[in-house]
């Protein structure tokens, strides 16, 4: 019998892990620690990913099989959900993995509905944030939210079912009682490489340069940041807002960046992979989310770069930023509150370096790739299994 060894972990036979995600770029960029942890432990890796024509964007040099999946970010219908569940059941019965890890609520729902029909040693649901599912109040959204959360709560009772959350609020919002689900892990974000994001000196103090890095959707509150900066510029203040991101065509509340073109002090820069370069050129990040966050990766990347952030008082953001220590927490959905925080930064530019250093310290304590990868490795360690003779 072949034995695979990684540090103090011994596998009595090869193991197989399957990842299920509905966005390929998101999977390879945000969840590298999970991929590396599984590879280090000797797992065979398979990723179920939608066919988004991006190719293998991992850049990890790791052997990972990609199977094209119907689980996407397109609006969900009952027939579509049924097809996704049947497809996943068929795949898991054929491949017989030991562990399946689903990233975000939609893939977690599909995995949860497939669980009664397959045999797994461990099924892991990673709730990266609740998104629009937790924000919209129309009847269809409320019904979908109630049913989704009910299914996930029911599946949490299975002894092989584990959950990962990025903040302490999401399980309560999903209807879990304090301390539930019983088998859960808390990760402060998906993990950011401390060597990729290195603090650099602040740019010249004027103008104050603010950056927003996110998907271009209503829930991110970019319109609020744009309005706040435009009003300050009209009042004579030296401040600029650069908006980075790409339109999210699959999101029902996507926003058009053209609407910011005429706003004074506001510029749309589009999508870029050079995130460290963004923070070298800016003093502060702004994340005026309306909610639905886990912990925004861009917020952690700003902190890793030694940049403070202005965030709203919503789950995930308020659990990472310490008000007045490494950034500012302001009221949600308030242009006036954002303006007040920006004015505070304009009035005390000398404080930004200290705030940024505190943000970097918070990042190093909670959210590096190494910290998160170790947590994944502990989660992926299964009890020894010996083949029947």
CATH fold-level topology of the largest domain: Rossmann fold
Main sheet: strand order = 5-4-3-6-7-8-9
Mean pLDDT equals: 90
Task: Write down the secondary-structure element order.
Answer: EEEHHEEHEHEHEHEEHEEHEHEHEHHH
What structural category do the secondary elements indicate? alpha/beta
Topology, number of strands: 15
- From the N-terminal CA to the C-terminal CA, the straight-line distance is 11 Å
Shape assignment: globular
Number of helices: 13
The number of distinct structural domains comes to: 2
> Segments where pLDDT lies below 50 for 5+ residues?
1-10, 385-389
**Largest sheet composition:** 7 strands, parallel
Q: Rg, please? A: 22 Å
How much β-strand is present in the residues? 15-25%
Oligomer: single chain
What is the CATH superfamily label of the largest domain? Glycogen Phosphorylase B
CATH class of the largest domain: Alpha Beta
């Amino acid at each position: 019998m072949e034995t695979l060894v990684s540090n103090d972990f011994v596998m009595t036979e090869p193991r197989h892990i399957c990842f299920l995600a509905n966005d390929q770029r998101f999977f390879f960029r945000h969840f590298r620690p999970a991929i590396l942890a599984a590879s280090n432990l000797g797992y065979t890796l398979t990723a179920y990913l939608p066919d988004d024509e991006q190719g293998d964007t991992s850049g990890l040099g790791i052997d990972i099989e990609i199977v094209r999946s119907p689980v996407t970010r397109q609006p969900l219908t009952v027939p579509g959900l049924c097809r996704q569940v049947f497809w996943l059941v068929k795949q898991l019965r054929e491949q017989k993995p030991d562990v399946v890890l689903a990233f975000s609520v939609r893939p977690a729902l599909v995995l949860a509905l497939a669980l009664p029909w397959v045999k797994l040693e461990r099924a892991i649901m990673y709730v990266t944030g609740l998104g629009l599912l937790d924000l919209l109040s129309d009847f269809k959204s409320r019904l979908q939210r109630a049913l989704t959360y009910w299914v996930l709560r029911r599946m949490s009772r299975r002894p092989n079912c584990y959950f990962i959350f990025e903040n302490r609020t999401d399980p309560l919002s999903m209807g879990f009682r304090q301390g539930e689900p019983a088998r859960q892990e808390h990760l402060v974000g998906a993990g950011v490489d401390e060597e990729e994001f290195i603090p650099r000196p602040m740019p010249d103090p004027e103008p104050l340069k603010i950056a927003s890095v996110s998907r271009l959707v209503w829930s991110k509150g970019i319109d609020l940041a744009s309005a706040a900066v435009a009003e300050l510029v009209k009042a004579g203040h030296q401040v600029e807002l650069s908006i980075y991101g790409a339109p999210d065509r699959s999101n029902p509340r996507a926003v058009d960046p053209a609407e910011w073109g005429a706003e004074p002090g506001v510029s749309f820069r589009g999508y870029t992979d050079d995130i460290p370069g963004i923070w070298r050129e800016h003093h502060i990040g702004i994340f005026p989310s309306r909610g639905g966050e886990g912990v925004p990766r861009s917020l952690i990347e700003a902190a890793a770069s030694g940049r403070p952030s202005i965030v709203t008082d919503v789950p995930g953001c308020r659990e990472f930023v310490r008000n007045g220590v490494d950034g500012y927490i302001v009221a949600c959905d308030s242009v006036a509150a954002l303006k007040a925080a920006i004015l505070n930064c304009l009035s005390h530019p000398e404080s930004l370096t200290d705030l940024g250093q505190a943000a970097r310290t918070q990042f190093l304590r909670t959210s590096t790739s190494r910290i998160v990868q170790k947590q994944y490795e502990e989660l992926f360690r299964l009890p020894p299994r010996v083949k029947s003779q």
